[in-house]
Specification:
Helices cover 33% and strands 24% of the residues. It has helices at 20-32, 51-58, 75-81, 92-100, 106-111, 126-130, 132-143, 169-178, 214-225, 239-244, 258-269, 312-318, 336-350, 390-401; strands spanning 9-14, 36-41, 84-90, 118-122, 147-148, 152-155, 161-165, 189-195, 199-200, 206-207, 229-235, 250-255, 274-277, 284-286, 306-308, 325-332, 354-359, 371-377, 382-388. It folds into 2 domains: 9-178, Flavin prenyltransferase-like (Rossmann fold); 189-404, Rossmann fold, CATH 3.40.50. It binds cytidine-5'-monophosphate.
């Protein structure tokens, strides 16, 4: 493992199969996650998706041969500098050339100089995948430590179906990033709440808050990348936060009200290792909900009566919980010292194992902006800090949580 995400240098080889278009989405996902991507297509791949597409998406030059350009392409430097190599789709021909150690184009030449983890995602007709030559090539590559994904089964290029389909781009990206991410949450079940609960006044109006769900979604994604099975309890999260959480190991369960979130927490924490309550939960709800839209004339109430919602975090923390680690968030306003003091008393009151305290207001904390949290234990003592992008904060928080798991 060369370094921690993000900012990895990824080489993406693309070979000449109809599924080459799907590699476009791998480039996009990696770039959106903050990684640099250098695409190395084969000549045949360019028959399916042209050079301008790869250059525009990756923002890097694209070459297929070692001899292109005035000085040639330094395949040794390319291979050595890579933190991760993906080939998707990998044709039967690429598998054969890689297994034989051939160096007849820039991609195979570079593969011979690589020291990072390598993931190949084959795609071909079923007959080619099952041919003894391909089976032997895959076995050879795997015996050398190369990760060769099994293709999906399903509809192939023509009318035929069977094993040979390129796995979905998200699955390939997730499997590749897992190779360079510590799998310190492997085998763990994690529940994360995100977003903000909404309490209906009538069928069209609600009392809610500004939480976008980004921090919770990022925490869910980071846990999944580190090997956990994750349930994301999504309380009206933004579409962009939903996209952030896209990972084969993240199951999204949508909830709206605090009561729905409380029920979902009960259901999904059974057998789980950790609950992270990143959702902004409405403290109050209207005492009654009109079943028809309230009109602005005589039926409009002057006063909305509110009743208190249960504190989900405090409730879960207070009951016997069979090894479940409970982590809360506290968003506070004020000076750094005021925020910390509020956090300390909240930590003692809530009884969660850890409480991540952050300052909000003045554009801090909400939406997709830089963030900083101080993590306290149940006595209010500081156990660590995490700052930077929401992804940095998520990584820092899991670094503090993992050693505390039973
Ligand atoms: O009291 P406060 O809302 O600041 O506490 C924040 C923490 O408590 C968050 O982790 C939030 O998800 C959780 N919470 C809860 N149920 C409530 C209110 C907050 O679980 N009714």
């Amino acid at each position: 493992m060369n370094r921690r995400q993000p900012g990895l240098r990824v080489l993406l080889g693309v070979t000449g199969g109809i599924a080459a278009y799907k590699a476009v989405f791998i480039v996009r996902a990696l770039r959106e996650a903050g990684h640099r991507v250098r695409v190395i297509p084969t000549e045949a791949a360019l028959e399916f998706v042209g050079r301008p597409t790869w250059e525009a998406l990756s923002g890097e030059p694209v070459t297929t041969s070692v001899f292109e350009g005035a000085t040639g392409v330094d395949h040794v430097a390319l291979g050595r500098s890579a933190d991760l190599v993906i080939v998707a789709p990998a044709t039967a021909d690429l598998l054969a050339r890689a297994a034989a150690g051939r160096a007849d184009d820039l991609l195979t030449t570079t593969l011979l100089t690589v020291t990072s983890p390598v993931l190949l995602a084959p795609a071909m007709h079923t007959e080619m995948w099952q041919h003894p030559a391909t089976v032997a090539n895959v076995a050879t590559l795997r015996s050398r430590g190369v990760t060769v994904l099994d293709p999906d089964s399903g509809r192939l290029t023509g009318a035929d179906t069977g094993p040979g389909r390129l796995p979905e781009p998200e699955a390939i990206t997730a499997a590749a990033l897992a190779l360079v991410t510590p799998q310190d949450l492997a085998g763990r079940r994690v529940v994360v709440s995100a977003g903000g609960t909404r309490e209906p006044l009538d069928p069209v109006r609600f009392l809610g808050n500004r939480s976008s769900g980004h921090q919770g979604a990022t925490l869910a994604l980071e846990a999944a990348r580190r090997g956990a099975e994750v349930t994301l309890l999504a309380a009206s999260i933004d579409a962009s936060a939903r996209e952030v959480a896209q990972h084969p190991a993240v199951e999204v369960v949508d909830v709206e009200t605090t009561a729905e979130l409380a029920a979902a927490v009960d259901t999904h924490t059974s057998g789980a290792d950790v609950l992270v309550m990143a959702a902004a939960v409405a403290d109050f709800r209207p005492a009654s909900t009109a079943d028809r839209k309230i009109k602005k004339d005589e039926s409009a109430p002057d006063v909305v009566h509110l009743v208190q919602n249960p504190d989900i975090l405090a409730t879960v923390a207070a009951r016997p919980r069979d090894g479940l680690l409970v982590v809360g968030f506290a968003a506070e306003t004020g000076t750094q010292e005021e925020v910390l003091e509020l956090g300390r008393s909240k930590a003692r009151r809530k009884g969660a194992d850890l409480l991540a305290v952050n300052a909000v207001g003045d554009g801090k904390g909400f939406g997709d902006v830089a963030n900083a949290v101080t993590v306290l234990d149940r006595d209010g003592a500081q156990v660590g800090q995490a700052a930077g992008s929401k992804q940095d904060v998520a990584r820092g928080l899991w670094d503090l949580i993992v050693p505390r798991l039973g």
